[in-house]
């Protein structure tokens, strides 16, 4: 009899506590997540921490692999997806030189002939300044790439549960896009000194300055800038930094696609759990 009474009392206490605790728990979770997000987290069987951890793990993996790929010999130059092309203004100048000529009255001299004369007295250039610049610029990005890794990783800040859920259910590069949009300006500012140093080491900046100097070159007493009305940016650093960074993010996005497509292929339980969920797989 005493035992039955004890169980009855405990049952009453449990029901009372349940009535008190569950509403309180629901209110606390609702305040932190919002009703829609709370429902989705509970349905997923994933905690907020797991979702964020999985997304950060995927980005971390993507960064490691991408930087390693970009840092390979000719990692930029021979990868058409991330190869850094000459700035548009420089391409326009190159095109004008290759097709234009200077009229001397009864004859004319091609701009290419004038450029060849300039190259002959310019120690920074061996033959084709535009081709040399392209190679040196891509080599500079390659050399700077590994220096980007600690900068990128330090910017992997915590995500809110709302952001995490949107990323999880988003496009095949949603995590990369989020990271790019939330960190790009600060990353570029931090990365630019490394790119500049690399461009100095590969002589890309010296070659670029020589191309700019060509516009002030005098041929037969005529300044080239009076013949070719084409302005180019004063510096290559900002352009090269943006393109080098874009290339790395492109590679990170490609890694994210692979993870989303085959989450079980990766030696990471948290990546497999998060990206293998029905939400991540579009279920």
Describe the protein in words.
- It is a single chain.
- With 283 residues, the protein is mainly alpha-helical.
- Helices cover 68% and strands 4% of the residues.
- It has 11 helices and 4 strands.
- The chain has helices at residues 2-33, 35-44, 48-70, 88-99, 111-120, 129-154, 161-168, 174-201, 204-214, 237-261, 269-275, and strands spanning 101-103, 108-110, 218-219, 222-223.
- The chain has a two-stranded antiparallel sheet. A two-stranded antiparallel ribbon has the order 3-4.
- It is elongated and about 85 Å long.
- The model is unreliable at 1-43 (pLDDT under 50).
Quick rundown:
The protein is mainly α. It contains 11 helices and 4 strands. The longest helix is centred in the N-terminal third of the chain and has 32 residues, at 2-33.
């Amino acid at each position: 009899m005493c035992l039955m009474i004890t169980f009855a009392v405990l049952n009453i206490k449990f029901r009372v506590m349940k009535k008190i605790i569950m509403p309180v728990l629901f209110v606390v979770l609702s305040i932190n997540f919002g009703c829609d997000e709370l429902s989705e987290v509970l349905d997923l069987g994933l905690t907020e921490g797991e979702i964020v951890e999985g997304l950060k793990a995927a980005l971390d993996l993507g960064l490691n692999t991408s930087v390693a790929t970009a840092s390979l010999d000719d990692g930029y130059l021979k990868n058409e997806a991330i190869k850094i092309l000459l700035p548009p203004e420089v391409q326009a100048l190159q095109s004008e030189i290759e097709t234009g000529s200077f009229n001397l009255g009864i004859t004319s001299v091609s701009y290419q002939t004038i450029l060849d004369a300039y190259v002959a007295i310019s120690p920074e250039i061996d033959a084709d300044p535009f081709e040399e610049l392209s190679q040196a610029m891509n080599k500079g990005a390659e050399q700077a790439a590994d220096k980007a890794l600690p900068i990128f990783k330090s910017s992997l800040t915590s995500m809110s549960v709302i952001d995490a859920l949107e990323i999880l259910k988003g496009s095949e590069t949603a995590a990369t896009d989020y990271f790019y949009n939330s960190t790009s300006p600060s990353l570029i500012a931090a990365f630019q000194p490394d790119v500049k140093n690399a461009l100095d080491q590969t002589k890309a900046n010296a070659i670029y300055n020589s191309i700019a100097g060509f516009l002030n070159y005098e041929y037969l007493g005529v300044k080239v800038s009076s013949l070719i009305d084409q302005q180019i940016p004063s510096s290559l650093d900002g352009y090269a930094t943006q393109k080098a960074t874009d290339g790395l993010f492109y590679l990170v996005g490609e890694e994210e696609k692979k993870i989303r497509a085959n989450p079980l292929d990766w030696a990471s339980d948290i990546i497999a759990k998060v990206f293998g969920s029905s939400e991540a797989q579009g279920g």
